[in-house]
Amino acid sequence: MLKLVTIFVVLVAATLAVHDKFRVEFQWKYINVTWPSEDARLAALQNEEYIPENNAIAGIKLWKHRMYLTVPRWKNGVPVTLGVTSATPQNNVTAPNLEPYPNWEMQKVGNCKAFQFVQSMEIDPKGRMWVLDTGRTATMTLEAKARCTPRLVILDLENDGKVLRSYEFPENVAPKESAYLNDIVLDHREGGIAYITDNGKEDPGIIIYFLQNNTSWKFRHESTNAEPEFTGFMVANTRVTESVHVDGIALSPASASDRLVYYTPLSSLHFYSVPTSVLINRTETAGDYVRELGRRTSQTDGIAMSATGVLYYGLIADDAIAAWDTKQSDALMQTVISRDHRLTQWPDTFAFDEEGYLWCVTNSLQNFINNKVNISVPNYRIIKSQNGGLKSYQYFENGTAPELPYIAAGASQITFAFASCLTILLVSIIQ
Ligand SMILES: *[C@@H]1O[C@H](CO)[C@@H](O)[C@H](O)[C@H]1NC(C)=O
Ligand SMILES: *[C@@H]1O[C@H](CO)[C@@H](O)[C@H](O)[C@H]1NC(C)=O
Ligand SMILES: *[C@@H]1O[C@H](CO)[C@@H](O)[C@H](O)[C@H]1NC(C)=O
Ligand SMILES: *[C@@H]1O[C@H](CO)[C@@H](O)[C@H](O)[C@H]1NC(C)=O
Ligand SMILES: *[C@@H]1O[C@H](CO)[C@@H](O)[C@H](O)[C@H]1NC(C)=O
Ligand SMILES: *[C@@H]1O[C@H](CO)[C@@H](O)[C@H](O)[C@H]1NC(C)=O
């Protein structure tokens, strides 16, 4: 028996051993942006529309040698909440200024056609970026403000970021005053689906959005709630006490027969899964299908799945990154693939590129949360590791992409205009 176990462990280690060491690709003391002019920069500093230490990067996704980053408006003074820069350092500059994406207009605080608070997005294999906007600003402060309805916005990266769809979540799915759209994964089936974690304090859950009929619903279950015994932990001698509901989310790969959504609250050590079939069917008893998959050694933030079913996640209280080959074992089997007490403080979000690298944002969030950011030292890093050519869960195991839904631009507006005309016509006829 003991022998069998040993062989098994060796096998698992072998499949995960393709990893190179993570190396630091970018590193910032503070996040800065490409200002339209020197006057604009000075004005923003003066009126506190830009407060350098309040800008922390969180989300990362890559498309065609460009790196898209998010700067959530956790505090005041964040000029750009969705930015872009080259995915390779230009002229050896490893702390590039972010360009607003798609433009400055889309970053305006208080304009509900623009982004208010972007933390996460996902890019599908056709280059469409699905962006979550929680709609609130300064969420980590006493001045938190619900400015716009939480929404999902789809941009076409192949067409200058043109808006293809803007969907406002109904109040009963994502309450405007409290929703917190944390992370998103995409499923190409059934005309296109997004699974989204909402860790709002009032009504946490997993939101399922159907592209085809432009509707959403929310899956609620006790497994999406923070577990009180895991709300406190230490990172690099700094204590964090936060109660955070469901946060990390991953989807088993396109090749899997019954795809599962994996998720975990940040304040938890447990991974859970629920089959996509019951989420797609809107099964009333979906909660009966939830499985608890095992216990990690630490809290985790973002998680991500490869095309071969390897789940990557951070161990925040251990400055480490771990992997679990879900094809080898249904229950959690944790292998630490990287640990660095200086460079891997708070692994926040993962991304895959098309060259087989695994990327990760580490942002020392323990300092940011405790208002202890020192902009004289590096605070935010992007590290990457050659990952044996692996792509993300959105691809088949052989690296090809499934057929993806077509998303027409602005079709709804036309339909809406037509419907309004018809209504006016009918009303005038009746009168
Ligand atoms: C931000 O970038 C601009 C343009 O490169 C530079 O002049 C400025 O010193 C940087 N830092 C701040 C805090 O504005
Ligand atoms: C970048 O740095 C490397 C090593 O420090 C140096 O050899 C190279 O010339 C630099 N490239 C540019 C464009 O400055
Ligand atoms: C989808 O729903 C949103 C409601 O938030 C609406 O504004 C939009 O026009 C709809 N789009 C389509 C394509 O039906
Ligand atoms: C989902 O609905 C389909 C069609 O009604 C049905 O065949 C299938 O068994 C359902 N799956 C689950 C898990 O409820
Ligand atoms: C939208 O599509 C999904 C998936 O096909 C389906 O489960 C759901 O019932 C549909 N919703 C409406 C309102 O038609
Ligand atoms: C910030 O870092 C600098 C450089 O290491 C150090 O000299 C300074 O004391 C630090 N400030 C605080 C408040 O810790």
From TrEMBL:
| Record field: transmembrane | 406-430
Main location as per UniProt: secreted
* Cellular component annotations (GO), alphabetically ordered: extracellular region
Q: Does the keyword Secreted apply?
A: yes
Q: In terms of domain of life, where is this protein from?
A: Eukaryota
Organism, scientific name: Cephus cinctus (Wheat stem sawfly)
* Location within or outside the cell: Secreted
The name this protein carries in UniProt is Protein yellow
The signal peptide annotation in the UniProt record is 1-17
| Family under the similarity heading | Belongs to the major royal jelly protein family.
> What is the phylogenetic placement of the source species in the record?
Eukaryota, Metazoa, Ecdysozoa, Arthropoda, Hexapoda
- Is-annotated flag, keyword DNA-binding? no
Q: Which UniProt keywords apply?
A: Membrane, Secreted, Signal, Transmembrane, Transmembrane helix
Pfam families, per the entry: MRJP
